[in-house]
Write a sequence for this structure.
């Protein structure tokens, strides 16, 4: 059982993204006592859903830790959210009557960087459903890409899935040679012809296409030239993100996101060798962020 | 005033597309007596809206002709609609309790072809908000492309606008050289930087991007290499649609759609010279289709 004194040192760390919201409860010894995962947590794509997901993930993390009896309003909480680099959304989130003791709000890339490097200095290349590059060096932030789907997010899971779909459609129309991806894509979407495929993909969003990304890598590994060309183009974009970040000489750079295991082996060798394993998750980064902000706050209060 | 006899020979022709629904009322001498334009008419994107648009456009055409007193249920009507090449949607539309005497339903490409060539044999390349190629020769139809945005519709207005946006974002990120399109796009969308642009384009659809297509052609005409590369890629896709259609030796081939005046000059010379001016609009094609179906029906009734 936690004593009242122990509870004081507990922090919640939350990472809200487009498809899910993850929370941890961590003690002063950096031990993760419990984790919780809820639904979409990107306030840009749905404010009410995001705030509900944040509260739910936090409660689930406490429950997972056996700390149901600890009230949210006794815990300082770091929250990293996609989209809050837009000032209007940051203000809106700050105005949310959150259930925590204090909420320290950061954008998701900053907490990812803090988690990966255990430091406020470093860089990350992220390839999950979306893609972007980010560095924070001496509090100077640099963000490249991450502009959303389909207009941005090149080299992301959604981008790879969309490219596969485009090439399969061209091939079914007889405009390019068939690819190994054709039959796999049709089977995966339970359809048999072009018309069925068109119906299956109508109006689909990034998360749908991201689920198709593996098709490209599977086919490329079997030597499919169309899949190889897609990977060349996507990997070169991610290379260019990494190169731009490396110009700033970050002390560490990591590659994060669900597509990393598939895509990293296709990056330029010189870049692969510079990519360090992330030390911790973005949720841990969110706790680090909250601790840092709280200590700044305490200093300011002492000076006042 | 029209006598009862004249009225018998009046037909309505309707072309329902993604952004608007157009109707004409035409007499037996192929004279267009009135036209009407209403809202979106693609039943795939909204069944109730499409059926409302069809009825409204028909009423507006009658009003424009000074024929408000002619009841819709006295008129045979040809209706061409995007999406009804999907059998399920065709059935659903056929089951609609339409307000006409009889409704003869065809997909939009067939009535476009009938209008352009005044014949059921011919081919069309369409580049408007979307893109596709279509031919009908001895009742054998061939459809290439037209798979929707962003997964298909290469070389369309929406595709050109999206490519421009992608390249401007890459350029604002410093990953490629700046384009003449950068400042024009930011000004057109009332924003001043990357973050403003990202917010302005979030979750936008094909019709939004199609309004940006002219930027590419304007910049290309001033020698912008990024715009020229976009046009090369888009034009080559439209060339490939035309080449595939020409293999079938259609007696006539035309290029239709709002992007035609901008894109046609960039197509391969050998293809440009084969493109014939469309003789009439798709709405006129819809009347031809209705007349043809009605005469087939009359023959069958005589034989029975």
């Amino acid at each position: 059982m936690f004593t009242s004194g122990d509870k004081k040192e507990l922090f919640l760390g939350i990472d809200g993204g487009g498809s899910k919201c993850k929370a941890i409860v961590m003690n002063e010894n950096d031990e993760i006592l419990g984790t919780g995962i809820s639904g979409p947590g990107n306030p840009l794509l749905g404010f009410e859903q995001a705030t509900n997901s944040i509260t739910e993930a936090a409660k689930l993390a406490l429950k997972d830790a056996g700390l149901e009896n600890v009230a949210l309003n006794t815990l300082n909480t770091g929250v990293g959210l996609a989209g809050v680099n837009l000032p209007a959304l940051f203000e809106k989130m700050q105005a949310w009557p959150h259930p925590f003791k204090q909420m320290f709000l950061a954008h998701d890339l900053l907490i990812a960087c803090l988690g990966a490097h255990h430091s406020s200095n470093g860089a990350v290349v992220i390839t999950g459903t979306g893609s972007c590059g980010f560095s924070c060096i001496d509090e100077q932030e640099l963000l490249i890409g991450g502009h959303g789907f389909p207009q941005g997010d090149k080299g992301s899971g959604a981008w790879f899935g969309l490219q596969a779909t485009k090439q399969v459609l061209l091939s079914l129309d007889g405009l390019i040679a068939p690819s190994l991806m054709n039959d796999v894509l049709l089977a995966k979407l339970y359809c048999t012809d072009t018309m069925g495929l068109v119906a299956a993909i109508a109006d689909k969003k990034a998360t749908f296409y991201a689920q198709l990304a593996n098709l490209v890598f599977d086919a490329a590994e079997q030597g499919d030239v169309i899949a190889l060309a897609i990977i060349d183009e996507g990997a070169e974009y991610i290379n260019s993100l990494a190169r731009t970040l490396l110009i700033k000489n970050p002390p560490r750079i990591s590659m994060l996101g669900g597509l990393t295991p598939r895509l990293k082996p296709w990056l330029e060798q010189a870049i692969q060798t510079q990519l360090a394993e992330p030390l911790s998750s973005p949720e841990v980064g969110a706790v680090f962020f909250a601790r840092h902000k709280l200590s700044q706050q305490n200093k300011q209060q002492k000076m006042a």
Residues 1-6 of chain B have pLDDT under 50 and may be disordered. Chain B touches chain A through 30 residues (CB under 8 Å).
